[in-house]
Amino acid sequence: MGHNNRAATAPWIRTRLRTAPGAAAALAVLVLVTAFLAAAFPRAVDAYETKGLRHDIRTADAGRSVLEVSRPQPGLELPQAQRDAEARSPELTRVGAGLLKTLPAPLRADTSSVAYGVRTTEPALADEPWLPRPDAVPPKLSYVAQSGLKDHATLASGAWPTTPREVTSDSREVQGAVTEETAAELKVKVGATVELLTAAQEPITVTITGIVAPRDPRGSYWSADPLLRTPSLVPDPEAPFPVFYWTCTVLLAEDAGPALLSTATEPALFWRIPPDPAGLTGRDGARLTEVIASLESGPGLLKVRETAGETAAFATGLGHIVEANARMRDAISPVIAVAALGIGSVAAVVLLMTGSLIAARRRSELALMRSRGGSLRGIGGRLLAETAVTVLPASALGLLLAVLAVGEGRWWPGAPAAAGVGLLVCVALPLRTTLQHIRPTLHGAREDMVSARPSRRRTVAELTLLVLAVGAVTALRRRGTSSDDGTDLLVSAAPVLVALIAALVLVRLYPLPLRLATRPMARLRGAIGFLSLARAGRSSAGGALPLLALLLALATAAFGGSVIAGVGDARDDAALASVGADVRVSGVSERTTLPDELVRTVRDLDGVRGTAPLRIEHSVALPEAAAGDGGADGSSAGTGTGSGSGSGEDVGAAAVVGVDPARYADVARATGLPAFPAARLKATGPSAPLPEGTESDPDRVLPAIASPSVAARLGKEPQALDTLSGNFKVQVVGTVPRVASLSTTNFLIVNSAALEQQAPTTLLLTGAPDPGKLHAAVEGSGEEYAAHLRSEERARYVNTPMQAGAERIYLAAVAAGAGYALLAVLLSLLQTAPERKTLLARLRTMGLTTGQGRRLLAFEATPQALLAAGGGLFTGWATIALLSPGVDLVPLALAGVAGSDTSPVPLRTDLWSLGLPAAGVVALAAAVAGVQAWWASRRGSITELRAGDSR
């Protein structure tokens, strides 16, 4: 009977996981979170780029985004029957279906809103006496026989236009309809008739059988040609003076197109195809631009003409929309790359610190295995296997959570990122651990910074990094975050390199002041101060890797916070420049004055703190420039003197603003505008207030505050002005750079009490009145008045998914940077925790009390925490100061909003983003030290001081 003499051995991986389940779980959680962030970032970028492209196309004006194929009417050389057939619905439908098939990917059509038909390209004069004539000019009407009217409108009154008989070029009676807006403005009623002349001057009678209401007035069916929905009052370009006439479109029956072929209105066949952005992704933008260019003047146009005819033309503004989206994406991407590289670097360093902590904890175990014949390959293989069992599932789970959290985005960019996190940990941990045991180490060798001496290789490496950092920062300051070839990774990594150099410099300089401080401490009676400083100066917890992680995290958090603060400040400034104060009440027309009752009602609302009435008159002609004048006598009240900036401009007109000086100065002060010199506009002497109804003397001289450019033109002497508020002379007594509620830089501010006409056209308010009550009070005074709130204007600047997505990424960058900074502190303290426990146990045998032990650990951790916090503050501030000239936040802050200021938006230091993470580092270090001291005091000294312990 044989016996199996092989010794039973437990599996290595199972044994290790059972021995240290807490360490394995902590490593798995760290890898899970890091893999989730790494995989979620590219998916989040894809998601906001995709949503941004779809949003831009979906919200663009239909006249710009629609794809339109058109061709002139069929040739006159063709038989009449063939010409009529080509203008009827069956043939138009066949061509339209063919055009939909020719659209190349990724361009897709919204088939529910496709429209086709026959239209007039030249409006026809309508002489019917019942039609309105604003300036005694008859209206000009366009006609269209368009498909799908019943699907896109509801019948308000009358009946749908039909074709009782087949319509041909010889037909002289057709039916039509108009929208409710057209009927209201042009006084059209059901049963009314309009005559349309043929080329032979024979009348075609168009009978209005119905009035329709659009189902979706903003949809492409009605908005591709706005005259279908809404009439327009337009100026006559041929008149010697401004006169206006009405123009609109009459909707004929769908098969009434052949009747238009006999007119002299240059009829054309058309197919309008709105794009469907639902299937587009952010990466389709470049391909979409190529496809549109091909359809406009390339191979795609040849295919269109094969279907629609040799004379067909393709037109769309979709290409411009896609190009604008691409410009915004290209401008935002480099700024996002700064955050991505910063957080990625912090995460990599923290993972390496985790590997160093695990290697330090297992050093004695692996040294024993090595001394008993274990090979480096065998030890490394086992470490790789036990690490992979924990790390790879955590990486896969992080990828899965990222896919679930960010539902829209490409899968493949996130997968390599999550796999890279797992690979880094699986390779770095075994490699870092086994490299320590290539050569046998003496027992009890010092591991603190006393034995650490910078080598020549380290010096060369630091100098190389210094050159790279200086080059990156210099390039960023000169040309911004983007280059001609796209995102420059070296430039985007400039904050990382600056933090790296700062960490290496601080590590070299850190022990020197501490060792100098130990000399006076040694003369004191207590040993706590001397021991804490001596150990802090020698501790390996203050090495390059922990300090690098902290500086990277704090610098990245500061950079991200500055981006968010700069964007917020830029939007606040833009909203203030647009509104002028917290609230602006004005007329819809520039010359509409506000009634006293409205001013009193708004002024008495709850929440209103101050009001300032303004009388604004635009485009007041200025006299010729004063030769040889250097500007106003008064010194500048804003940013320059009267002869300051703008003196070289040719200013022919300016806005004249009448204000109550004291009340306007209060509003300017409350809203943060430049200080206003109210005393210089005091109405005394010749400029004293005019009694109501008194005519202004043209020779009266009013003191005025002007913009620098207007002050330079008017000079020092009084200049005459002719305004609707009266005729008078002005003399510039000072300058300010801007005036509330005006975007123009050419203005004059005078005392409204000295004007002949004093009724305000604008009312500025400070405070926070209830928006609902405010709008109700203004609307109750008439439709010609409107209220504009600064808060509502501010909300307009977060209107694109691309901007909102980029801001969310930067918020996540700030949070992740702060979290990794705190984790780096915790790891650095945990690495030396066993040593601290042993120290306390030994000192307790010498009479050290529990309170003294807590103070010792707290004092020991404080210098390192202060070094990291101070270095992080300095590095973050220096990074922002160095990089702010090269970073413009306009695409993040204001792009895509009509009428917004597009002046550069630089980075601004955010004190909260600088201070909070740094304070958290110090607080966490003190808390961990206190917990370690408390925990060590609960355990007996015998537990820590075992015979033969190497600690």
What this model shows, in words?
The chain is α+β, with helices and mostly antiparallel strands. The chain contains 32 helices and 23 strands. Strands 1, 2, 3, 4, 5, 6, 7, 8, 9, 10, 11 and 12 form a 12-stranded mixed beta sheet that branches. The chain has a 9-stranded mixed beta sheet with strand order 19-20-18-21-17-16-22-15-23. A hairpin with a 2-residue loop joins strand 19 and strand 20 (726-735). The longest helix is centred in the middle third of the chain and has 44 residues, at 318-361. It is flat, with a radius of gyration of 39 Å. The model is unreliable at 5-10, 628-649 and 947-951 (pLDDT under 50).
Secondary structure: elements and pairs:
Blueprint lengths: L11 H8 L1 H39 L2 H4 L1 E6 L7 H7 L2 H14 L12 E6 L3 E2 L14 E7 L2 H4 E6 L14 E7 H7 L6 E5 L5 E12 L5 H4 L8 E4 L8 E9 L4 H4 L6 E7 L11 H13 L1 H10 L4 E3 L2 H44 L1 H9 L4 H30 L8 H22 L20 H24 L2 E2 L2 E2 L1 H4 L1 H16 L1 H12 L5 H11 L5 H36 L3 E5 L8 H8 L4 E14 L31 E7 L1 H10 L30 E6 L1 H7 L4 E5 L2 E10 L11 E5 L10 E6 L3 H9 L5 E5 H6 L5 H31 L1 H13 L4 H34 L6 H4 L17 H28 L2 H4 L7
Parallel strand pairs: 4-10, 6-8, 17-21, 18-20
Antiparallel strand pairs: 1-11, 1-12, 2-4, 2-11, 3-4, 5-8, 6-10, 7-8, 9-10, 13-14, 15-22, 15-23, 16-17, 16-22, 18-21, 19-20
